[in-house]
Design the sequence.
């Protein structure tokens, strides 16, 4: 069995105690991190290595940043950055081979305020992901594309859907782009296992400390290639991390995959 998780850490150095505690308690085999908010040279490789994980990362000072961790082994880097825009300076995509799987870790742009230039960049980035995702499927290898998609796909994925009507994560164009990925053949693994369950991976920080339960959204997703979807046995969210001291505003989402024949 292989256990894969994705976690927007909202600052890998500032939240390092949360990350290390979570890694120690869960011992996932493959972990994708987003929103590192650190340059490459300040990525906490030693601490993560001491926790038993090999790592590759694509950092950016103060913003963005993605990483792939693998327990007891070294991820083999396949790509950093999406094709299609050589002038894109955002560190939002990294890809590795890990134990026979292709793992793509992504941090899709938020897009707010929308409409506007940031929303245009979000949609353009999404188009590049859709195009590249098509090529990954044609390659035929078992693949997971996971991360913070900054998309709330359906009303079931928000505690109060109407609250987000004016937000880029819930705009029809964002949801349509996500739907087009599913139409390609990608399978939303959490929704595959829990087709009717209200599940959330993000909550606003509360001014009183803690978080606002009414703000729950599901926008951290693990999309798996069609053949791999047959081996997904369970999926969920480590909601309890959202209540830890100095947490991220996201909670980790995860899947378990049976050993493939």
Sequence:
């Amino acid at each position: 069995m292989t256990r894969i998780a994705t976690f927007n850490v909202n600052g890998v150095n500032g939240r390092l105690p949360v990350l290390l505690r979570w890694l120690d308690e869960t011992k996932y085999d493959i972990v994708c991190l987003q929103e590192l908010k650190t340059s490459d040279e300040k990525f906490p490789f030693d601490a993560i290595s001491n926790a038993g994980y090999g790592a590759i990362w694509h950092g950016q000072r103060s913003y963005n940043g993605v990483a792939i961790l693998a327990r007891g082994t070294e991820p083999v880097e396949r790509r950093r950055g999406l094709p299609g825009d050589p002038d894109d300076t955002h560190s939002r995509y990294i890809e590795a081979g890990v134990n026979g799987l292709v793992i793509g870790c992504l941090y899709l742009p938020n897009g707010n305020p929308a409409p506007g230039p940031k929303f245009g960049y979000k949609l353009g980035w999404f188009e590049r992901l859709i195009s590249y995702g098509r090529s990954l499927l044609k390659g035929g290898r078992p693949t997971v594309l996971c991360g913070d998609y900054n998309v709330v796909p359906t009303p079931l994925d928000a505690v109060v859907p109407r609250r987000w009507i004016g937000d880029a994560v819930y705009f029809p164009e964002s949801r349509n782009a996500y739907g087009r990925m599913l139409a390609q053949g990608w399978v939303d693994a959490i929704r595959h296992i829990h087709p009717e369950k209200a599940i959330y991976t993000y909550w606003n920080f509360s001014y009183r400390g803690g978080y606002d339960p009414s703000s729950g959204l599901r926008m951290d997703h693990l999309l798996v290639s069609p053949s791999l979807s047959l081996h997904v046995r369970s999926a969920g969210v480590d909601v309890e991390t959202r209540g830890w001291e100095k947490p991220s505003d996201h909670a980790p989402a995860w899947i378990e995959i049976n050993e493939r024949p």
